[in-house]
């Protein structure tokens, strides 16, 4: 029997929250939570950091949405970014998931 969280099946609902770490354009270290939202055609990700807002269009997978978000931040001078999922639905994963590191070149 497969259990589906109501949050995962509803569009426009946050299905996961990923921790994003890296350096901003000034070289300062930052940490932000990135909500990943279910859309009609997949997933999108959004982040607000100081005056920078980045939001992706819909992508087929969560990982593709995160990659697109990182690419946008790279264009704003961010670097050394990595993510990991901390919440899936309302379930806290206790920071046990592995980090995904992103290269500084798109």
Write the layout of secondary structure elements.
Blueprint (H helix, E strand, L loop, with lengths): L5 H4 L4 E10 L5 E10 L4 E7 L2 E4 L6 H14 L3 E10 L2 E2 L7 E2 L5
Antiparallel strand pairs: 1-2, 1-5, 2-3, 3-4, 5-6, 5-7
Question: Can you walk me through this structure?
Answer:
This protein is of the alpha+beta class and 106 residues long. Strands 1, 2, 3, 4, 5, 6 and 7 form a seven-stranded antiparallel sheet that branches. The protein is globular and about 35 Å long. The N terminus is likely disordered.
| Average pLDDT taken over every residue | 90
Portion in strands: 35-45%
Shape summary: globular
Bin the helical content. Answer: 10-25%
Summarize the helix and strand pattern as letters.
Answer: HEEEEHEEE
**Discrete helix count:** 2
**SS elements, strand count:** 7
Q: Distance between termini?
A: 41 Å
Q: Measured on Cα atoms, how large is the radius of gyration?
A: 14 Å
User: Structural class of the secondary structure composition?
Assistant: alpha+beta
- Main beta-sheet annotation: 7 strands, antiparallel
Low-confidence stretches: 1-8
């Amino acid at each position: 029997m497969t259990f589906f969280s109501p949050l995962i099946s509803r569009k426009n609902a946050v299905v996961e929250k990923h921790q994003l770490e890296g350096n901003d354009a000034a070289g300062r270290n930052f940490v932000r939570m990135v909500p990943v939202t279910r859309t009609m055609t997949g997933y999108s990700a959004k982040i607000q950091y100081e005056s920078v807002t980045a939001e992706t269009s819909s992508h087929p997978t969560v990982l593709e949405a995160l990659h697109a978000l990182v690419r946008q931040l790279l264009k704003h001078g961010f670097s050394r970014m990595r993510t990991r999922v901390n919440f899936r639905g309302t379930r806290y994963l206790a920071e046990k998931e592995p980090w995904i590191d992103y290269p500084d070149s798109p």
